[in-house]
Amino acid sequence: MKTERHSKIVELIGKYDIETQEDLADRLNQEGFNVTQATVSRDIRELKLSKISNGKGQQKYAVMKNPGNTSSEKYVRILKDGFISMDMAQNILVIKTGAGLAMAAAAALDALHFQELVGCIAGDDTIMCAVRSVDDTIILMEKLRRMLHE
Question: What is the value of pTM for the model shown?
Answer without folding.
Answer: 0.55
